[in-house]
Amino acid sequence: MLAIDQGTTSTRAIVFDSGGVPVATAQRELRQFYPHDGWVEHDLEDIWRDTTVVCRAALEQAGLGAADISAIGITNQRETTALWDRATGEGLHNAIVWQDRRTAETCRKLHADGAEPLVADRTGLIIDPYFSATKLGWLLDHVPHARERAERGELCFGTIDSFLLFRLTGGAVHATDSSNASRTLLFDINTQDWDEELLRLFGIPRALLPRVLDNSADFGVAQAEFLGAPVPITGMAGDQQAATVGQACFEPGMIKSTYGTGCFALLNVGDKPVRSTNRLLTTTAYRLDGKPTYAVEGSIFVAGAAVQWLRDGLRVIADAAASERHANDLPDTQGVYMVPAFTGLGAPHWDPDARGALIGLTRDTGVSHIVRAALEAVCYQTRDLMECMAADGGTPPSALRVDGGMVRNDWLMQFLADILGIPVERPVVTETTALGAAYLAGLRTGVYASLDSVSRAWRRERLFEPAMDEADRARLYEGWRRAVRRVRSDLA
Ligand SMILES: Nc1ncnc2c1ncn2[C@@H]1O[C@H](COP(=O)(O)OP(=O)(O)O)[C@@H](O)[C@H]1O
Ligand SMILES: O=P(O)(O)OC[C@H](O)CO
């Protein structure tokens, strides 16, 4: 199976064998565009070119041809909004990335108009620039003639899964899956359909929207020109939901957290769209045979992105792995906290106007303190989410399954277990996002008979047990909460 993982900072293709073992991987870093403060864009042609290049490279590395691939699974950065011409497939604008805050004012107006309860009931989300609807509204209002053309059915909206599917099928299929649709603010997660009232609220013509399928489905066939032979596309999911599948979190109460650019914790809540009373999101975890399973999600916008900033912005570390050595060099940060609210704060604060801070600096503060504070922030933010999940009721999770680029940092995993006070489990395959996409594809083609066979394939590589004493855990976390209060725009 060939999994395409189109993430925020890179595009990867991984070939998995039928046992879920990665056989070959190819990756390209993705260019980021920051046209204004709080704006983030991607060039759709970069995404498309990188996708085809990494797919071919992974096949070559594996010594396989397209005919050896039984199916393709696609997983993607979610919410990122693309608008393209239905006839030519050409993008009308750069994609507006999930981190982009340009629609903060629109969201404030919608709040003021009292739209929140309707939106929350139907979508399980809150009104925030994070999601696709206001980004799409911005494109329709700012790209010349886009709105009239959209009304005439000449344009397509989609998240990146949908864009890639359209291109891979040579423009034959305009579809998405329930997990990606559930991040748009336009999709009713109860009825599993686009919602007319929400379309009116956000001013989105229905003609723009893709068809919504299960996560394992016959999405279409990738044309022979891309890989050398036609290959069916049978799995598709937003990256965090794909990771939930890759981590085999199939029972209510199971939770995974993925540490890439951001951090996203998804708690399986079963077949009812349970709502958080603590500003977490409810979302489709996966939908199979028309039956949705839901998750409560905590979304943190900056995790690994803070490490990237230390590397590329401040240039105080040569590579991400160096962050572990800095953290290990110190017994603690001496009271230094970093709140990496570079693009506002996500769950549970939802404060698009907050900006980051480094506090508690003294003459003794060195680079290592700042680097360690960036890593610690990832753990404190995860604790914030777990506190909300606990306050929502339900059985507290007994362990956290982790994955994503950051989890190879052993120091970080130990500190995470210490701050959460529960064991952290790192699987053998940490590319669980891609693995989840491969599983979803394989479930459709019969490579996997059921979710049980996926569960049986999950293997733990290492367990990190909490070792910090309770008083230290409480003191450090309280310091974090104070630091967050100082960056909140609504408390200023
Ligand atoms: N050893 C490490 N310690 C801390 N952070 C790391 C380490 N290795 C990678 N990262 C961070 O992980 C992120 C990459 O993870 P990845 O899952 O590839 O991200 P994404 O899918 O969001 O593009 C980067 O932000 C990088 O800074
Ligand atoms: O690209 P990632 O892995 O940071 O994931 C992005 C999320 O899907 C955004 O919601």
CATH topology of the largest domain: Nucleotidyltransferase, domain 5
Low-pLDDT runs of 5+ residues are none
Bound chemical compounds: adenosine-5'-diphosphate, SN-glycerol-3-phosphate
Q: Spatial order of the strands in the main sheet?
A: 17-18-16-15-21-22-23
Tell me the structural class: alpha+beta
Backbone shape = globular
CATH class type of the largest domain = Alpha Beta
CATH architecture of the largest domain, by name, is 2-Layer Sandwich
State the fourth-level CATH superfamily of the largest domain: ATPase, nucleotide binding domain
Report the span from N to C terminus.
51 Å
- Quaternary state of this entry equals single chain
CA-based gyration radius: 21 Å
Helix content: 25-40%
Which strand-content bin applies to the residues?
A: 15-25%
Q: Overall pLDDT, averaged? A: 95
Compute the number of helices: 17
How many domains, as an integer?
2
DSSP, total strands: 23
Domain Carbohydrate kinase FGGY N-terminal: 1-246
Keywords: ATP-binding, Glycerol metabolism, Kinase, Nucleotide-binding, Transferase
GO molecular function, one term: ATP binding
Binding site for sn-glycerol 3-phosphate: 8, 78-79, 130, 239
